[in-house]
Design brief:
Blueprint lengths: L13 H15 L3 E7 L9 E3 L10 E7 H4 L4 E5 L3 E6 L2 E7 L7 H14 L5 E6 L7 H6 L12 E2 L12 E2 L2 E5 L3 E9 L3 E3 L2 E3 L6 E8 L8
Length: 223
Amino acid sequence: MLERSAQAPQQWGQENTEAAVREFVLETSPDIVCFQELPRTVPFVETHGMIPANPESHSGNLAVLVKHDLLADEPAHIEIKGCAVLVTFGEITIANVHLAPGGGGLAERLEQTARIVEASPTPNILIVGDTNSRVAEERYFADAGLVGDRPPKATWNSRRNRFRPGAEFSAYFTRYFATETLAVDEVAVWTEPVESGAATFFLSDHFALSGRVSLDALPTGAA
């Protein structure tokens, strides 16, 4: 929600967070940026344009930014009410998601995932974002034909992040699941804090996740 960390200086405002997000996107130069939990405000990045879809999840809004050269091909997009934006580039569909929260939310997460898969215009789907999924739930996604290695670091680590005071634990809420037709590599978790004056803090209670997705030549076991 572009909120201010409890560790940030008092003068740090939403405009500062937006500017820091813009700088991060410019430095890392991803083709596609997936945001969740936005307060109806999407950080501006001059190298990217926004897919015209801004659905509201259970907490804030989702948005997808795409480099201008990829936007020139006018990629098709689909909104899944309450949980996802699907954008298709050639034979690959990327679903930016914010799935149902809570330890008891598995059934709803799986129902949302089924709707996403059914709505995809391609059979090659990458589901990425705040999945709110627990490690023990991986087998249920695998049963649905979706697999994904855990990120190399926790994408939620309140022992380190301390964005909000309270219970401290680590998890892999932000992660990806993909059909076996897709290869996902170069996965990284961005855990470097921001510095402003004497303060060191984070922009979000989730750490950013990045990676590269491509179409596999053949799915496992294919002839």
